[in-house]
Design a protein that fits this description.
alpha+beta; Outer membrane efflux proteins (OEP); 2 domains; four-stranded antiparallel β-sheet; 11 helices; 8% strand; elongated
Length: 430
């Protein structure tokens, strides 16, 4: 297994840099069906690279880590030492007038924490760090999956634009042939007008696709923060697909993916919170020592004191119960997430298989037959055996099959990208 996201236990067992590096390596392997090319066009690897470096949604995790690092510093502190001054028996009446009979006490006090409270606080923060890191991994895969989806959609539209250009060229040829036959008196002038209208319709469709293509490129570039696409075209193979493992094998990968690891990290956080709540049930000892000055007799003395809260465990039972409820909630949410992911994986798996079969049938059966039919129909039309309607119908059949091929290939790649996102592994990983 070449591209597996490393598992983590403990506080940030792997640095954020290595996490992202590992995710990017995976991202480059995701969608092996899109052949990456170097050149003037934009490849999938370049799109992923720019997104990883510049996507604002991924940058928000850095401040979260910084904030939790600050909270960890605070959580790791021992209780503060408190210095105090106390003055008694002064500015009174009778013998207590003035300050001659005053008592001055300088004290130092603090709390002696019991039950491992400091360690429990630190453990909670460390668990939060691990949870945020797991969320970052899951979000990174989601963003990379979104990049791949938009890349494939734009690549498909690029293919349709090429077909639209071929359709315009075919319409121009058709118009020229019909016009030539009309001059010879072999066909009515009305057919020339219909051919001219068909040509205009093809040009309008080409213009529409060009506008949509520009919009798709803009949507793709926005994922790495560009306000205008810095590329002219995309480089990739829309019609390549790789064999996939069985559905059950893929589902096993889903159960180990970052989207599920988030729940495991959250469960560890809730366990740490339970331990913290239990440690808070242990009574702390408050202590105080000091020096007292008795001005009336000119003597000094030491003072000391201890205090322990009573029935602290009973008072904190509610916090422990609430923390355990949150832990149990995570288990149910994880189970629900697995069910939903299984459903999504099932749909994507079978839709991909059906689309791949459709691609093969269209490519190997429909297109050769329709291409040959168009050639024969054109020859028959030029010889006066077929009508204009029959010829244009053959053209439309071939164009529809070509578009269906693009749509089927696009659907296959969409679902392959989804499968690889859900499993966090490329299908070609054997």
């Amino acid at each position: 297994m070449l591209f597996k996201l490393p598992s983590k236990d403990g506080r940030r067992a792997m640095s954020c840099h290595l996490v992202i590096q590992s995710l990017f390596i995976l991202a480059l392997a995701v969608n092996p069906s899109v052949t990456l090319a170097q050149g003037s066009g934009l490849s999938l690897s370049a799109a992923l690279s720019q997104t990883m470096a510049q996507n604002p949604g991924l940058k928000v995790f850095d401040p979260r880590f910084q904030g939790l690092d600050g909270l960890r510093i605070t959580a790791d502190q021992n209780p503060a030492l408190i210095a105090g001054v106390q003055v008694e028996d002064f500015l009174g009446s009778g013998n207590l007038q003035g300050a001659d009979s005053a008592e001055y006490t300088l004290s130092l006090s603090s709390v002696l924490e019991l039950g491992g409270k400091r360690e429990s606080r630190v453990s909670v923060i460390d668990s939060r760090l691990n949870l945020v890191e797991a969320e970052r991994r899951a979000e990174t895969l989601d963003v990379l999956g979104q990049v791949t989806q938009r890349f494939v959609a734009t690549l498909a539209l690029q293919e349709k634009l090429q077909l639209a250009g071929e359709a315009v060229a075919l319409a121009e040829t058709t118009h020229d042939i019909v016009a030539h036959r009309a001059k010879q008196g072999a066909t009515p002038q009305a057919e020339v007008l219909r051919a001219k209208a068909a040509l205009t319709r093809r040009r309008i469709e080409q213009s529409r696709l060009q506008a949509e293509y520009r919009s798709r490129k803009m949507a793709l570039a926005s994922l790495w923060g560009d306000t205008a696409p810095g590329f002219a075209k995309l480089e990739g193979d829309l019609f390549r697909s790789d064999a996939a493992d069985s559905f059950e094998a893929l589902y096993q990968r889903v159960s180990e993916s970052p989207s599920i690891e988030v729940y495991a990290s959250e469960e560890r956080l809730r366990e740490a919170e339970i331990q913290l709540a239990r440690s808070e049930s242990e009574s702390d000892i408050r202590w105080q020592v000091g020096i007292r000055r008795l001005e009336g007799i000119g003597d000094t003395a030491l003072t000391a004191g201890l205090s322990i809260p009573l029935f602290a465990k009973q008072r904190n039972r509610g916090e422990v119960k609430a923390a355990m409820a949150k832990r149990n909630e995570v288990e149910y949410r994880r189970a629900d997430a697995l069910l939903q992911l299984r459903s999504r994986l099932f749909d994507a798996y079978h839709m991909r298989q059906q689309s791949i079969e459709a691609v093969e049938q269209i490519r190997n059966q429909m297109l050769p037959d329709l291409t040959q039919a168009l050639i024969q129909t054109r020859e028959a039309y030029e010889n006066g055996r077929y009508s204009y309607v029959e010829w244009t119908a053959a053209q439309q059949d071939l164009l529809s099959a070509q578009l269906a091929l693009v749509d089927a290939a696009t659907t296959a790649l969409f679902n392959q990208a989804l499968i690889e996102q859900l499993t966090a592994q490329p299908l070609a990983d054997r």
